[in-house]
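User: I'm new to structure prediction. If I give you an amino acid sequence, what do you actually give back? Let's try with this one:
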Amino acid sequence: MKKLFTLFVIATSLNSFAQDPYRVTIDLTKVQDDQVPVEVIVPPIENDEVEYHMAKIVPGTYSISDFGRFVVELRAYDKEDNKLSVKKTSTNKWVISDATKLHKIKYWMHDSFDEFDGYGSNKVFEPGGMGLDAQNNVHVMNTFGFVGYVDGMKFNPYELTINHGEDIFGATSLKKIKSDKTSDTFTAENFNFLADAPIMYSEPDTVTKTIAGAKILVSVYSPNKKLSAADVMDNIDELMEAQSEYLGGKLPVDRYAYLIYLFDGPTISNAWGALEHSYSSLYTLPEMDPQRISQTVKDVAAHEFFHIVTPLNIHSEQIHDFNYIEPEMSQHLWLYEGVTEYSSHHVQVKYGLYGLEDFLNEMKGKMNAQDNYNVDIPYTEFSAKILEPANEARYGDVYSGGALIAMCLDLTIIKSTNGKMDLQAVLREMSKKYGPFKAFKDDELFDEIEKLTTPQVGEFFRKHVAGTEPLPYQEALGWAGINYSPESSEMVATTGRFSFGVNDEDEIIIQDASNLNDFGKAMGYQEGDVFVSWNGEDVTLQSINGILDEHYSNTKKNAKVKVVIRREVDGKQKELKLKAKAVLVKSSQKHLIEPSETLSEEQTKIREAWLGKS
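Assistant: Good question. You get back a string of structure tokens that encode the predicted 3D arrangement of the chain. For your 614 residues, that looks like this:
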């Protein structure tokens, strides 16, 4: 299962370095039993009693992590190393007495990639967790999982020192102020900045490149060396160039780090994906064929990088000063995740990285995905109550319904402003007004965007985002000369009603042949068959979709279908030629989207404003 999360941690203070810093040391050379020692020297305390907090929830993951449950033997000391009284009052809180004497806090930290007694059933999604692997010399470090803060002192600066072996390198977007062969010291303006910057220590496999004025770092850990940092950089540089054009001609950051951790076995969360940060993104992905994994990184990166706009430069008060213990959620997941997901596809069609048909298929897929969710409450309400169990099950809809909101909104802006503005222009204006250090009020966002555009845009928000009226696919797509039908049916050639799969060699196989129809039986398909060719065309991961599209669309009734498969016969692998006459079956599909062959002058103008000139 793939999941994409975004760490919504926003810069909130420009003057915190005038305050006394926390000085944190994490010693990776002492990792044992998937635990690491952590020492936190705290700023001077004026209260007799304080609370030390670990994060309950990390903004952007929309689920409770309770990092306090990974803490072992938390102790507090004065400057003479005398113990102070500590009482744990909840999973994520420790009350420390005689706090005016408090000098340092020490504890051991479990990793979250492996189970231990007390872990519980709430598994942490790996890109938002902690992995300590001394055997393979790789450590995935989300700082919010290792380090906490004294309540009321979240905005003091941090100095983080990591002790490590000579043969590993720490890749991160954090600013490094000191380094030698076995130690690195980083600075962060406050806890928000610290939490916003993961670190991955591993044997060095890094590449840096300047793209559109930003220094881009790629660091890869691949246990079986199937993927390199150079592979990734080769696959994303064109994308980032397109993204810079999409964002107005330059990237809005001076640096960015891609941290990519590949695993070759099951994960504790049974999921894979990424967590986005302001200046970096952390990926945990299965170690697959290099071409497949490079494309996967590219697809995920297309989404994750756009979070530089939302929420880094456009965000609400709830995100600006996030409460890690008792969070209040924003109404605008459609903006933070939906607009970002839409942009990740829109940029690729607008700048020629893939075609119109591919883009429309992506939007069709999102329409089909949204059909699986109960959407009877407004998006604003669903978003604000995302942590409630009834709404948590709908979280995946932010990537489908949220992206479709963005698509229809983009077209509404273009149509109602006569092509003078689009969604990206609105976001640029919003970024100028707010930026990283200023938040908008949740209840005022729609009015703010309406002022920049037209009353029609405000009406769109009231009906389809704050209300529950279905999105106007037919009308909005029609403005750009795209035909939309909620449902259609046609006669297409059947493949035989079996389930496709992929084996360890990345070959296409028959995974399940238990429900073969008459055509499948006539072909003689069996479970485990490996496809070699289909009507003379070699079957590969790259070619299979095109082959099937051709089969479904253009195969006539009774035409000969010739397939070569490889099958084990009498203990030996043999290639067999299978053939049968094609059978057509009625196929119904929802959400048919097709470009019109002829466009009016206005449709041409809107399509070019939306998708660029082809």
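You can read the tokens as a compact description of the fold. Here is one thing that stands out. The CA atoms of residues 383 and 457 lie 20 Å apart.
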